[in-house]
Automatic annotation (TrEMBL):
It holds the Pfam family FAD_binding_3. This is 2-octaprenyl-3-methyl-6-methoxy-1,4-benzoquinol hydroxylase. The lineage of its organism: Bacteria, Pseudomonadati, Pseudomonadota, Betaproteobacteria, Burkholderiales. It comes from the Bacteria. Residues 129-324 form the FAD-binding domain. GO terms for molecular function: FAD binding.
Length: 370
């Protein structure tokens, strides 16, 4: 069997990106797709990628291969609270960047990554578990069986919420504006998206308590659209479903260890955060960048699976992932609190932040680089 330097388990966006990144270092990489691809319904996922993630994909020659409609720039973002006047407005112009993020069609991105993998001379897709390599990178997601086999625990907190995702068309242009509503107890995001032949469209991510989410999922299309209009107040125009609805349970979690002798965890196998900040995939791609840098800078005599080497990666990712997990959890808990005094305080806080330009620029900078 061909000798490999690294075995990457998991062929999602993080796994394929890692395989290509390590291949660019001249390493021989075996990519093991997920043994079981669970059918979770229509793939309506749309991710908000920050400039750091875009830069990584550009370096892999994948970003520029995406069709124009697959990546929509976000120039402005409005975050509204659950009381009049509670609003933060972010803008690329104020942050002095070209765009705050790009909204990307997940299915198209996965397809382009798979195409790049097929043409990479240093990446081999394998379909069995007999591959041996000095380093195994687990990118299988939060339910990683290989992580479990290693005996690495995964601490998680179920929110008791579900996320509903769908594609929508709108009666008015999105003008590259992302909208988000924080309310007790739900969070609703409209991500601007350019659909061929449609133009005015959004990716919907709506996080709600399980019972409320289930009630919305059983509604017919007309009734669901009416619920959307009530929730958004018509701010984005008249919204119409352009796809089936998908849903999944929400949780927060982290692995008890992300590296050891001969193995390392990346992406959702290492950490899961609430989608309200849209940073889950950015954290995973930042993992890819950090591990690639650690391996590129390793001493010539040091083995790829050296535990001390891999601890450098673990240390590099500890603070960013810890901070994002606590920030997203804190925001969710704050806006889920029903007490009127807390409600007034959090909405005044939004308004205060909106008028403090230096603080807004600092918050934007943190989101631009996970």
């Amino acid at each position: 069997m061909k000798p490999f330097d690294v075995l990457v388990r998991g062929s999602g966006i993080v796994g394929q990106s890692l395989a290509l990144s390590l291949a660019r270092l001249g390493l021989q990489v075996a990519l093991r797709p997920d043994p079981v691809r669970r059918d979770t319904g229509p793939d309506v996922r749309a991710y908000a990628l920050n400039p750091s993630s875009v830069g990584l994909l550009q370096g892999l020659k994948v970003w520029d291969a995406l069709p124009p409609q697959a990546a929509t720039p976000v120039h402005d973002m409005h975050i509204e609270g659950d009381a009049p006047g509670g609003l933060i407005e972010f803008s690329a112009w104020e942050a002095r960047v070209g765009e705050l993020a790009h909204i990307v069609d997940a299915a198209v991105l996965e397809r382009e990554l798979a195409s790049a993998v097929r043409f990479s001379p240093h990446v081999s897709v394998v379909d069995n578990d007999d591959v041996r390599a000095p380093l195994t990178a687990l990118c299988e997601g939060k339910a990683s069986s290989a992580r479990e086999a290693l005996g690495v625990g995964f601490d998680k907190d179920d929110y008791g919420h579900r996320a509903i995702a769908a594609r929508l068309t709108a009666s008015t242009p999105h003008v590259n504006l992302a909208r988000q509503w924080f309310r007790s107890p739900d969070v609703l995001a409209l991500l601007p998206f350019d659909t061929p032949g449609v133009g005015h469209s959004y990716g919907l991510v709506w996080s709600l308590p399980n019972d409320r989410a289930q009630a919305l999922l059983v509604l017919d299309e007309r009734a669901f659209e009416q619920a959307l209009m009530e929730a958004t107040g018509g701010a984005a125009g008249e919204l119409t479903l352009a796809s089936e609805r998908a849903a999944w349970p929400l949780m927060r979690g982290h692995a008890q260890a992300v590296s050891g002798r001969g193995w390392v965890l990346l992406g959702d196998a290492a950490h899961v955060v609430h989608p309200l900040a849209g940073q889950g995939l950015n954290l995973g791609l930042a993992d890819v960048a950090a591990l690639t840098q650690v391996i590129a800078q390793r001493e010539a005599w040091r083995d790829l699976g050296d535990e001390k080497l891999l601890r450098r990666y673990a240390r590099a990712r500890l603070a960013p992932t810890w901070a994002m997990g606590h920030v997203t959890d804190g925001l969710l808990q704050l806006f889920a609190h029903p007490t009127p005094s807390v409600r007034e305080l959090r909405n005044r806080g939004l308004t205060l932040v909106n008028h403090l330009s230096p603080l807004k620029r600092w918050l934007t900078a943190r989101a631009l680089d996970s």
